[in-house]
Prior knowledge:
- The chain is an alpha+beta fold.
- About 35% of the residues lie in helices and about 25% in strands.
- The chain folds into 2 domains: about 30-70, no CATH class; about 80-155, no CATH class.
- Strand 5 (about 100-105) and strand 6 form a beta hairpin.
Amino acid sequence: MMDAKKCVFVLMMAKKTGRRRELNMQTYIGVKRIQAERCERNGQEGYKVVYPDGHESWSPKEAFEKAYFEIERPDKLSQGDIDRFIHATETSKADAKTVLMRAVLKNGFVDYETSSCVDPINFDMEIGEEICLEHIKNRMWKLLGFVLQWADHGLGEDKI
Length: 160
């Protein structure tokens, strides 16, 4: 582990030279729940961000909107949040009795679902689409619930 002075110097040199790889830094992912409001700074659109510990910062609009998803309520997910996280869907008839739905989520992740009837005579595209979408939305509750749990409670042995 580098001491603070050396770390600052190395970071400054890496920024100056563009050689960040030489720092031997590890890669991390993180999720946090924040509060934010639109805020312009030096003529640039962005957001004022307030973190759970009270720390405040500012983020450019493009970077902020790429990293954060607005939820309707501060205390839990809503059906509207689930619906808005699904960017687009497309359906096709996979065979004589199966509907295939492809859902593209806000983060670019693609989810697929199928719905089939027993007898092709009973095939109904609209019913199949409704069933597929309901199943995808049910998975979204679980997936976004996972993200929200991480954002609110972080990681650590005390969570297990």
